[in-house]
């Protein structure tokens, strides 16, 4: 039993590491093409407004047809595998694939045929029509890809998800740059056509990602067939019953994902409209372009480090719950929450302090938006915690709680957007404030339910005081370095050195404060070696 438990722990962290590396690479690549677009002549903030508005509608339909599906399928598959029913798990996969092929096809049709109405009436940005048309086929490919990813996640194999998402982003970055460059030359830097070309790259990359998953499944088919032959505890269910089960799990998870996407859609539908009450339409679009094209991209970066825990927690907790091993589920949840805090806090404070230098470093040709980024950065710690909490709740079977908590937050966000954006001295900052309030409310509700249902014991000093102390030391030292270097070298070099200093000081502070226990170190990749080294130096528990 001990050997089996150790294997599961390693498997959990291997899955976390695979997703984490993949997501970090995805965000870096995504930032590269966003930098290219924002700094490209003829694109800039105006192009971001067109590109982002169309993309948010696409994201909404994508949520309805696929987002949340991997977690739902992973939960159901892991529960069947935990009791030895490989045949039942595979049957869930086959039925889900057929079901979401139909749903994905419907989403593609809605976006393709409704592009003109959506762009003119819903978004009030007519230029976004071509971007919606270009994006429409990708809904189908992402829908069926999400089922395959969920199946392998449920089998505790995160490689398929990590690799397919990385491949998708590599092609998306490459094709975006190539297609936009070609269209820019051909059309004399026509902003509308370049925005459409950027989204066409998304469709092509989702197709290539699915192609990889199809080949990967074929490679694993013999292994899966062998597992099915050894299956036990199999119960024959009608297809209708399986579909009902899949939808009963996927719809609540889908709705919780939908709430997060709706937050951005609220901005897409209200920011320009609200700002137009006291400024020109062109200025309003530029303000929205700054929010959606730069600020939202930067504040979402920490999620790439943390999404791995949310993804891995769903099947891990679901399988542990299926065999009654709640102690293991509690340990993984507490560890994931701790790492989430250790990721979120420095990102929040670091982005707040260095908002202006970061914007100048990344967007030298369009660096406006400092205060907006500072306000938005305060939500980072809450968004990453919500991500982890919702993954744990979904694995626990409390799939309606994320929907309720995010739903209440989104309702508050909508009301505040409609009120605050129209206030001239707030304007677009009102949208950032509304998002902060939305995330705080969602966090409080979700965290309260998780602690109560899993009977989690939160060590205030370990989870709050020490991480704050480490972040405080990081902030003081890195800001001191920035202030003393800014008159000696260029701002770009000063910013990079200051950020590197921040990372080093933060890691040293974490070690000095002895936040992680021996068991927690062992859960990290190469954690045993790290712990032994620190132990010899007298810096570990």
Describe this structure in words.
The protein is an all-alpha fold. It is built from 20 helices and no strands. It has helices at 2-39, 44-65, 69-82, 86-113, 115-122, 129-154, 159-186, 191-229, 239-275, 281-322, 326-353, 355-362, 370-377, 380-396, 400-420, 429-454, 460-485, 491-513, 518-522, 527-537. α7 (159-186) runs antiparallel to α8 (191-229). The model is unreliable at 1-10 (pLDDT under 50).
List the helices and strands and how they pair.
Layout (H helix, E strand, L loop, with lengths): L1 H38 L4 H22 L3 H14 L3 H28 L1 H8 L6 H26 L4 H28 L4 H39 L9 H37 L5 H42 L3 H28 L1 H8 L7 H8 L2 H17 L3 H21 L8 H26 L5 H26 L5 H23 L4 H5 L4 H11 L4
Helix pairs in contact: 1-7, 1-10, 2-4, 2-6, 2-8, 2-9, 2-10, 3-4, 3-6, 3-9, 3-10, 4-6, 4-8, 4-9, 5-6, 6-8, 7-8, 9-10, 9-15, 10-11, 10-13, 10-14, 11-13, 11-14, 11-17, 13-16, 14-16, 15-16, 17-18
